[in-house]
């Protein structure tokens, strides 16, 4: 097992002309390999070099009744105690400690009680290491902000089943002040996402940093996903939007948004892929090939999808990215305006286009296995939720079978 020793440290060669010296805590870790591990951690403090007691790891007064010496010594002791606490935790977990790990754990030390502080720090680190993509990074910020609004001073030991129940109820509630809505109620599936995010960061805190999370375990908190009926557009509704685009009265940004949405109706693009779509993805005049953004940090998957002529029609730019789009929030707001103007009474979002493709593909003779490949799904069960066919659609498809036999002579009536 490793050994660690800590002491107050200054660089003698770097003492300033006025006699002041920068203060460090030196960490010396041995028995971890062929070479000992030594590192100096900057305290961001200065003190006269001749007023430092290295034997006691403390500062002496610069003059009688020095008002700063006690506070400075407290900072030194606090820093040393933090490193000792980190070392103790690693020993109890039977883990090897290095100064690189000490440096990382010191960043988390002050976040080892505060849920918000931990999530903020861990989120930045995960994004910097490319463990999560920018869209996930921004979504996790929304979860953090919801906790700040709920209980900003939440500490790990109080996160139990009741905390989750209170958090869920807070997210579901609408809050009014002086007759004005200051917080809207959140939909069930958004609540599911928020709780899923919190549980993921609790697991990171417990598994990677040894931070105490109550023994009930986040896994015991039930977080059921509520499947709701997906929204898709029928052929006649898509035609209404195409006609609106062709009117020639839309502003530049609105034109880009509607073009992009219609493009997705004929390609099944996710919104995350849409924002990254570029001419570099075109492997031929008829196909696009790209690494899906969704789950790219954990399960990267490259898909090839058909690029049919009507979809090409909607590509706005001649080179580089296919579209110049506003924020996703503004994109969805603009779609709602289009639907109202076209008399389409449906709750349409960016994802509606993907379901619309599934409906059109199956309605006009596609098969579920081909749709599964185009959508990039792993499970056929997921693809089934995109195969929107009603009774009339099923009749049309069945009649196609009938049409294949229409040239046969009439059947004989058998008595």
UniProtKB/TrEMBL annotation:
PROSITE patterns per the record? TYR_RECOMBINASE
Signal peptide start-end: none
Q: Keywords of this protein's UniProt record, alphabetized?
A: DNA recombination, DNA-binding
By its UniProt entry, which InterPro entries does this protein fall under?
Answer: Arm-DNA-bind_5 (IPR035386), DNA_brk_join_enz (IPR011010), Integrase-like_cat_sf (IPR013762), Integrase_catalytic (IPR002104), Integrase_recombinase_N (IPR010998), SAM-like_dom (IPR025269), Tyrosine_recombinase_XerCD (IPR050090)
Q: Where is the Tyr recombinase domain?
A: 228-399
Write out the similarity annotation: Belongs to the 'phage' integrase family.
Name this polypeptide is given: Integrase/recombinase XerD
Q: Which organism is it from?
A: Sphingobacterium zeae
Provide the organism lineage as a comma list: Bacteria, Pseudomonadati, Bacteroidota, Sphingobacteriia, Sphingobacteriales
